[in-house]
Design goal:
- It is globular, with a radius of gyration of 20 Å.
- Helix 2 links the parallel strand 6 and strand 7.
- The chain contains eleven helices and twelve strands.
- 47% of the residues are buried.
- It is an alpha/beta fold and 385 residues long.
- The protein has an eight-stranded parallel sheet with strand order 11-10-9-8-7-6-5-12. The protein has a four-stranded antiparallel sheet with strand order 1-2-3-4, with no helix packed on it.
Length: 385
């Protein structure tokens, strides 16, 4: 059954049986989904005609590496997020792990086969990049990993301290490379849309970053589909580098991206790497339970509410029946989503990484998927701020 609103499917769309039930309707008409990017079954190497790429099984822990969107990059189907790592007295997150505590988790991710890592200049005021960069230099081979970071957030007070102006982008890529201890990043992403800047200024600056060899590809994060389409059109019109990924907000508690952004990305071959696949941990614990992060995460408090309770409880029932953790169930849902390349998973304990890898082989039944998705109700757009 289709995940999307009923519309006339294009000729290239998957048959109805390959898609899922529609997200509950709201105002507006979404684009239909047009292809299934991830086919996780098969031999050690095979061609997926719908995704248009080769799939290659990894040598560690049976992780199957896939292409990142339309690029040639091989990535694990799980990306380790770097927001959890940083000095707690720098930036806005007091719950982050220091370097000594972070390093074993980054090493564990590498050892189980994860080769995709995402961070941002603004995480813990730059210390997140520093910690991740040093750990990757010690535990991994640079040629094997795919390293992503982001630009937009304010890094210092005063003029030109943030945003997506040419001045800010060219300064911040150099700062990020210095903190990460590398000559280039594989993916340089805009952390949010900057409505104060002409889109031409932003896209040309990003193009120049790529042409300078400081980034191999560029990507975007949470924004409206029309904004993403505008940026892509601008790049195409001028012969500049287009975005190859979209890092958006998607999980069982927030599925508004299924209306327009995900079908757009599927149609254009853009890789989708969602943030917060466990909804700030709400999908990994019982309703009413909290964590140190949830108690101090002001941004997270704006994203979810009481309407999510039936979904959280259904995750718990399925987890209990399967004899697995709640996190594994919620991650299995997003890993199996037809338009998702690799969710970005945060890990502050070894079990978090173990759950993420276990979710890759947890195949939910159609009935379980229906039970997880049925309680969802439309909600306001969230996460763009």
């Amino acid at each position: 059954m289709s995940r999307f609103l009923p519309t006339e499917p294009p000729p290239t769309a998957k048959p109805a049986a390959a898609r899922r039930r529609p997200v509950p309707p709201c105002t507006g008409t979404p684009h239909p989904a047009v292809k299934h990017h991830l086919d996780r079954a098969g031999a050690s190497e095979s061609y997926d005609p719908d995704a248009g790429h080769m799939r290659r099984r990894g040598e560690r822990a049976g992780v199957e590496y896939i292409k990142l969107g339309a690029t040639g990059l091989d990535v694990s189907p799980i990306c380790l997020g770097g927001m959890s790592y940083g000095e707690s007295d720098r930036g806005n997150h007091t719950w982050t792990l220091d370097e000594e505590t972070s390093r074993p988790l980054i090493r564990q991710a590498i050892e189980v086969g994860i080769n995709f890592f995402d961070t941002a200049n603004v995480y813990s005021a730059g210390s997140g990049e520093e910690i991740l960069g040093r750990a990757l230099a010690d535990f991994a081979r640079r040629d094997e990993i795919v390293l992503a970071t982001k630009v937009h957030g304010r890094m210092r007070p005063g003029p030109n301290g943030g945003g997506l102006s040419r001045k800010a982008i060219l300064a911040e890529i150099d700062n990020s490379l210095r903190r990460l201890g590398t000559d280039y990043v594989d993916l340089y992403q805009i952390h949010r849309w900057d409505g104060r800047m002409p889109v031409e200024e932003t896209m040309e600056a990003l193009h120049d970053v790529v042409k300078a060899g400081k980034a191999l590809h560029i990507g975007a994060s949470s924004m409206y589909a029309w904004q993403f389409a505008k940026a892509q059109y601008t790049a195409e019109r001028h012969g500049w580098t287009p975005f190859v990924t979209m890092q958006n907000h998607l999980n069982l508690l927030y599925r508004e991206e299924e209306r327009e952004m995900l079908p757009l990305c599927a149609d254009q071959g853009v890789g989708v790497i969602p943030w917060s696949p466990l909804a700030r941990g709400r999908l990994a614990r019982g309703w009413g339970e909290s964590s140190a992060r949830s108690e101090t995460d002001e941004f997270g408090k704006t994203l979810y509410g009481e309407a999510d309770r039936p979904i959280v409880e259904e995750v718990g029932r399925i987890a209990d029946a399967r004899g697995v953790t709640r996190a594994q169930v919620a991650l299995a849902w997003i890993v199996g989503h037809p338009d998702v390349t690799a969710p970005i998973v945060g890990a502050t304990k070894p079990g978090h990484i173990e759950d993420a890898v276990a979710a890759l082989t947890l195949n939910l039944t159609e009935e379980e998927i229906r039970r997880l998705e049925q309680p969802y109700t439309p909600r306001p757009v969230a996460g763009f701020a």
